[in-house]
Design a protein that fits this description.
The protein has 168 residues and is mainly alpha-helical. It has a single domain, classed as dinb family like domain (Four Helix Bundle (Hemerythrin (Met), subunit A), Up-down Bundle), CATH 1.20.120.450. The protein is built from seven helices and two strands. A hairpin with a 2-residue loop joins strand 1 (115-120) and strand 2 (123-128). The two termini are 21 Å apart.
Amino acid sequence: MPLSLHQASAPIFIRALKGLNTVLAKAAAHAEAKSFDPAALLQARLYPDMFPLIRQVQICTDFAKGAIARLAGEEPPAWADDEETFAGLIARVEKTAAYVGTFAPDRIDGSEDREITLVRRGQSSIVMGQSYLLDQAMPNFYFHLTTAYAILRHNGVEVGKKDYLGTS
């Protein structure tokens, strides 16, 4: 049986988001154990021209919810990017995983050739569903997920590969 777009998206996003929450919880505990302001981690960047941890998490969740909604032929929900704490980020990640989990396979499967219109910096483009998921949504999701993990690891949070990968 061929791999479906639902199998290649929803469970993958959910597993990775669970891993992200594990990493964020460890970061909050790390800041508390070391008695420093969690904002130091929340605003940390790998390089000055990169987004801080908070924005990396927000973008990561946006790609997960956006991909699922677009594959289903729906408009992704717009969420305020107003998180300022680890608790807020963890709640956002949980909300995203729950949202992704509401999409049954029949809402996603068969969307390989669905035209998806993307608007970036005022420019519209049309991509097909499979190409959108595999060439755009997933790589961007993992870029921001990995960057969030790397920011925390670079700043001394004791996380490892198992934390990053999450559990099924």
